[in-house]
Amino acid sequence: MTKRLVAMKCGLVALVVGLMATAVYFSRHDNQDPLILDDVSRLNQTRVSEIIRPRSEEELKQALERARRLGRKVSIAGKMHSQGGHAFYHDAVHLDMTAFNKVIELSESKKTIRVQSGATWKQVQDHVNPHGLAVAVMQSSNIFTVGGSLSANVHGRDPRYGPVIETVRSFRLLMADGRVVNVSRTENAELFSLVIGGFGLFGVILDVELELTENSVYKKQTVALNYRQYPAYFESHVKNRPDVGIHFGRLSIDPESRLSDGYAVTYTETDERPESVFHLAQEHHISRDKFFFGLSRTKEWGKGLRWRSQQNWVDVPGEVEIVARNNVMRPPIQFLEYDSTDDTDILQEYFIPPASFVEFIDRLRRIVEDEEINLLSVTLRFVPANQEAFLNYARNDCLAVVLYINQQRSADGIQKALRWTQKLVDAAQQCDGTYYLVYQRYPSPAQLRMVYPQIDHFLERKRHYDQNEFFKNRFYEHYAGSITPAIAEEVNQ
Ligand SMILES: Cc1cc2nc3c(=O)[nH]c(=O)nc-3n(C[C@H](O)[C@H](O)[C@H](O)COP(=O)(O)OP(=O)(O)OC[C@H]3O[C@@H](n4cnc5c(N)ncnc54)[C@H](O)[C@@H]3O)c2cc1C
To answer: Mean pLDDT, to the nearest integer, of 201-225?
Structure first.
């Protein structure tokens, strides 16, 4: 009898727990209208009218035709990791490009690859790795699409290359009027500089020919240093060294040494070939890293703990590791996945001339402290100057300061983040730097114009190639409103 009672009680508890788990699951995922989209920051919910996932050029053309017939705008998305509404628009016919992802041609002799724009860098890596080749420029992680990466003109961690535009030979573009055009530095050259870094506003990138490089083997070395030492260290140990394939730095988030202590990680080519060095690695320690990252989100001491653990386990000063390029270019990222209803993580990036780096970090520290910004990571990279893209951000050689920040999702939290972002943009501008356009729409239109004085000319060219603003997104909607007829006229002359 007692046993039966215990069994019944256990059953009841299991049922209640089960129901509670179901309720929690559905409160997070319920009523999720499949037409409501958001990016990875979960701050830009937008309802589209329909989602089309084309697999062929024909289906893409039909999708545009359908949008035209319905009188709707078209938005284009890869993995939706841009964070400012760049990949969707209210009521639009939304193109999810991720099934348009075939590898078309690999040339080992020319070291080039042609892929459809919905392919991810992971797919490219999986395809080229057996041939001893590697991607030349991509983000620090491989989860993004090639089309989304071109449209943001991304940069990576190989200090010998500038933004991805350097490695693009050509692409084909499906335009608002239904034409498909070849675009390269010699054919439709203006579109080459507008589309790369142009956030999907000129048409759908169909396929892209990219330059590849060798899957070199590197010796990884980590050196602890203070932020004041970093520019000189970079200049003497990394810059202009043809054997340095990957380089980045990190600054402390520990309240005891915030934005002061740091370390630099450099991968230098080596002839060593340990067994399995070319096998593509999978992400390990996801739960461990998620746990430490979570602690650093909510606790000041957690920040210190994570900062120290990172140097004990991941980037260990004095330790040497041998690793192939394709594995360096697929670092862990899953541990960052986060779905709290109250808060979220966002990225920001500032491009600062090396001469102003120390001043910028000092200003950044003051703003972080005054505004109590929940800073979770600070990464440093080098981006050599490249003027090819119309909306270029690396006009001179610059040190990129990448910030990973936690913010509240409430209206108040958003307002606060907007305020401190505008202070950071001002700080970057006062240091002759720029900011990356691919993140939140927090900078004011006036700041956008100050940092990107070419923006009105860009918007005018958008309207030249796409008179009815067929391709639209929320980033464009936010900033395009204020182009003045006088500027448009001036530009047209
Ligand atoms: C965790 C994280 C790490 C990041 N790391 C880096 C980094 O190391 N370096 C860096 O430079 N950036 C980095 N970024 C920014 C990232 O590179 C950009 O957000 C990039 O656009 C993401 O690619 P996506 O496939 O998600 O594109 P989406 O966000 O889906 O789209 C971005 C833009 O591309 C357009 N687009 C997409 N596909 C096409 C197409 N086929 N034709 C025309 N337009 C198209 C969209 O309309 C949109 O305007 C990072 C972002 C996150 C969240």
So the answer is: 98
Report CA(18)–ligand 1 centroid distance (Å).
Answer: 38
* Distance in Å, CA 195 to ligand 1 centroid: 13
User: What's the CA-to-centroid distance between 232 and ligand 1, angstroms?
Assistant: 32
Closest atom, ligand 1, to C-alpha of 471: 47
CA 493 to chain centroid, in Å, comes to 36
- Select the more confidently predicted residue: 482 or 69: 69
At the topology level of CATH, where does 339-452 sit? Alpha-Beta Plaits (3.30.70)
- Ligand 1 pocket: which of 82, 123, 194, 404 to mutate (most atoms within 8 A of CB): 82
pLDDT, one tens digit per residue, over 166-192 is: 999 999 999 999 999 999 999 999 999
Sheet holding 343-352, edge to edge: 320-324, 217-226, 261-269, 244-251, 374-383, 398-408, 343-352, 434-435
Instruction: Give kind and range of the element (H or E) at residue 410.
Output: none
Residues with CB under 6 A from ligand 1: 40, 76-82, 86-87, 97, 117, 139-141, 144-145, 147-149, 151-152, 154-155, 199-200, 204-205, 347, 438, 473
Enumerate the H helices of 51-120 as residue ranges: 57-70
Interacting residues of 198 by C-beta distance below 8 A, sequence separation 6+ = 151, 389, 390, 391, 458, 462
Say how far apart CA 5 and CA 318 lie, in whole Å.
Answer: 62
What are the pLDDT digits (tens) for 300-341? 999 999 999 999 999 999 999 999 999 999 977 889 999 999
Cα angle 305, 324, 168; round to 5 = 105
Q: How far is the CA of 137 from the centre of ligand 1 (A)?
A: 14
CA-closest candidate to residue 221, choices 376, 306, 328: 328
Angle at 402 between CA 281 and CA 113, to 5 degrees: 45
Who's near 32: CB < 8 A, 6+ residues apart? none
